[in-house]
């Protein structure tokens, strides 16, 4: 009897801060509804929202563009 291999869902969010302009968040997800829900949220609101839904922040990197951070999340894939 073998154990099933854990499968994961991934989510990538790019956050860019423009001086004197609102925060811009770009969401890469297969879930279009999630992408729409996250638009307009602050970074803290986004992190809390995703954490409440089982997403775990696994990494943050500086983006290619100036003033940009990329957040990587994962959670177990539903059966």
Looking at this protein, list some descriptive labels.
22% helix, four-stranded antiparallel sheet, Gtp Cyclohydrolase I Feedback Regulatory Protein, Chain: K, alpha+beta, 2 helices, single chain, 79 residues, 4 strands
State the CATH architecture.
2-Layer Sandwich
Tally the beta strands: 4
Q: Can you count the helices?
A: 2
> Which CATH class is shown?
Alpha Beta
- Through-space gap between termini: 19 Å
Largest sheet: 4 strands, antiparallel
- Could you give the order of strands across the largest sheet? 2-1-4-3
Please state roughly what percent of the residues sit in beta strands, choosing from under 5%, 5-15%, 15-25%, 25-35%, 35-45% or over 45%: 35-45%
User: Cα-atom Rg, whole angstroms?
Assistant: 14 Å
- Mean pLDDT across residues: 82
Poorly predicted parts: none
Our count of domains comes out at 1
Task: Please specify the SSE layout and strand pairing.
Layout: E1 8-16, E2 24-28, H1 32-38, H2 43-52, E3 56-62, E4 68-76
Antiparallel strand pairs: 1-2, 1-4, 3-4
Describe this entry's structure for a reader.
The chain is an alpha+beta fold and 79 residues long. It has a single domain, classed as Gtp Cyclohydrolase I Feedback Regulatory Protein, Chain: K (2-Layer Sandwich). The chain is 22% helix and 38% strand. It is built from two helices and four strands, in the order ββααββ. It has helices spanning 32-38, 43-52; strands at residues 8-16, 24-28, 56-62, 68-76. Strands 2-1-4-3 form a four-stranded antiparallel beta sheet, with helices on one face. Strand 3 and strand 4 form a beta hairpin. The radius of gyration is 14 Å and the shape is globular. The model has no long low-confidence stretch (mean pLDDT 82).
């Amino acid at each position: 009897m073998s154990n099933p291999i854990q499968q994961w869902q991934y989510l990538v969010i790019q956050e860019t801060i423009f001086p004197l302009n609102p925060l811009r968040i770009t969401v890469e997800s297969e879930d279009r509804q999630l992408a729409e829900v996250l638009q307009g949220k602050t970074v803290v609101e986004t992190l809390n929202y995703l954490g409440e839904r089982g997403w775990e922040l696994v990494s943050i990197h500086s983006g290619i563009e100036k003033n940009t951070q990329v957040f990587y999340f994962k959670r177990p894939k539903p059966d």
